[in-house]
Amino acid sequence: MDYNYLKGKKYTISDCDNSAKRIMSFSKEHHVKISSTAKLIFDCFDGENSLDDIINILALNEIDISKEELIDIIDKVFLPNNMFEGQAYQRKNDSLLWFKINLIESDKLASFFSRLTFLYKKTFALPIIFLIITSIVLSGWQMFDRGLSTSYTNSLKVLLIVYIDMIIHEFGHIIAAYFFNIPVGKIGMGIYLFYPVMFVDMSNTWRASNKQRVLVDIGGIYFQMMLLIPLTALGFITKDTTFFVTNISIAVAVVINLLPILKLDGYWLFCDGLGLDNLSQHAFEKILGKGKNASRKYVFFSWLYVITIFVSVAMALIYSISIFKNIDYVALQLKKIIYMLTNNDIYNGLDAFNNIFIYILPLLFLSFMAISILFNVIAGFIKGIFNFCDLKFKGEVND
Question: Residue 92: CB partners within 8 Å, gap ≥ 6?
Answer without folding.
Answer: 281
